[in-house]
Known about the structure:
623 residues; alpha/beta; Rossmann fold; six-stranded parallel beta sheet; 23 strands; 37% helix
Amino acid sequence: MTATASTIRLTAAQAITRYLLNQYIEIDGIETRICGGGFGIFGHGNVPCLGEALYPHIDTMPLYRGQNEQSMGFAAAAYAKYHLRRRFMFCTASAGPGTANLLTAAALAHANRLPMLMLCGDTFLTRLPDPVLQQLEHFGNPTLGVNDAFKAVTRFWDRITHPAQVIQSLPAALATMLDPADCGPAFLGLPQDVQGWVYDYPESFFARRVHRIRRQTPDMREITDAAASLAGAKRPVIIAGGGVQYSGAVSELTAFAEAHGIPVLETIAGRANMLATHPLNIGPIGVTGSDSANAIAEQADVVLAVGTRLQDFTTGSWTAFAGDARLIGLNVGRHDAMKHLSLPVVGDAKLALTALGEALGDYLAPDSWTRSAQDERHKWDDYVADNVAPGNRPNSYAQAIGVVNALCDPRDRVVTAAGGLPAEVTANWRTLDVGTVDVEFGFSCMGYEIAGGWGARIAQAEAEADQDTIVFVGDGSYLLMNSDIYSSVLTGKKLIILVLDNGGFAVINKLQNNTGQDSFNNLIADCPTVPEPFTVDFEAHARSMGADAVTVANPAELGAAFTRAKASDKTTVIVMQVDPYEGWTTGGHAWWEVGTPQVSDNANVRAKHAEIEATRAKQRQGV
């Protein structure tokens, strides 16, 4: 490296590393480096240059070696979620299949609006050695490659074709990841030769910079319109989404609801906005919700949706609300604020809830409405208490959830994804503290659970939190992606992992049966290509990766094993078989639109199609 008074000569890879090292964010008055480090698997497309650039900074920018690029991305997403999108990790992968493995993780981060930076190898800009190992050739377009596939699953995409472009592109990527409305993953394709090319960068580019998350003030005309709509409401409800937590608006949400006596319904992403014991928390809404929240939503005349993108599992495919209910979309993102002809309030939730509360004055929802909502919640609580209780019945997800819920620390973090567990955790988990539940259901991505737990645990360790990260995972997701058990043991990041084995993809088997079809290719026992089904020894498998592991027979044994795991400082895997047919939470479900055959030789399929279509009359029309 050589330098002048005002410039410093660096490779493109070195410049990227140095820039990231000097970017800070102010959180609660404390300045912290925005980039917490990275997850990386090296190959010929990123180790000679980017690897060389990262090595001198291994103490200040830790690089965690992943076992699979997809799971690295999941871990980065969970890390960002824990830090409420105010910090991120980068993922680096080699050119070709290593980078391609990140596509699913990028889509997950995009769907969930989470910051993640991907620094991925690319083919040589000069094309002199083409075609190189792992290069896809498009005969009519030599510029097209695997990395172009990321354009569909990122908020910011660029290919660095000259080292000077880093000066413009990297700050733009960072700005995207920190923007409340446009937040999402950023991708930089790094051609193998360009990574090592030098440029005389201005030293000012690497000056320490402190960033702050922008808070968008709402337009007061929109506040006035929303207040007028709410002031005339006889049956108002609030739907609280994950954006409430990202805004840091939990206190404002609670104060607003209490001041006006408005019942609060939680989305899956907003599952831990309020404690289970709060009198205005009526429960989770939607397809995997609660009878209490769904009953109230159906009667509401004004719905204030705060920080939610109103996906189909929240809206019951838009059957959860009365056809004439008025929607108010309070969201920092214009796209989300205007969904289904909502009256938009575009702005930061913390600022907008405060302004809306002031504009609403002394409005108070009718006491009879609030009491009715609370009565519904009490009935739902009774249902859940019975649902999670061990008894003379088969083992179930709900029972396992109840055991852990009763024994965990209030600040323990719960992680799950896809399959049947998001529904079961959403319905049955009683929130003990704010912001402690991570149910990945934005992209509904199997395989997130263990990797996400590892990423969350890394973030917890940074915060010096003594609490545990608890992962609920089914046997299907475990078999899909389990290698970060090894990662957690290697890095000393303890997890408590509950593997609930129901013999395959049981929740999809349930959907298959509920649409009139016979069981086929979901449960291992129902796979026509499997002559002799058998159960995986998950305990032995987990032990082979260095974890403590135990198999339990029932909820009582599960409780004892969980207590031991809490006392241990090592990753523990607890395995319990659950019934694939019985024990599902039957309450709390709204209608959900799935495609069913209009024509079939199976009479049961035809009957179920007619039954499902008969409910479509409740579906709201909108955009």
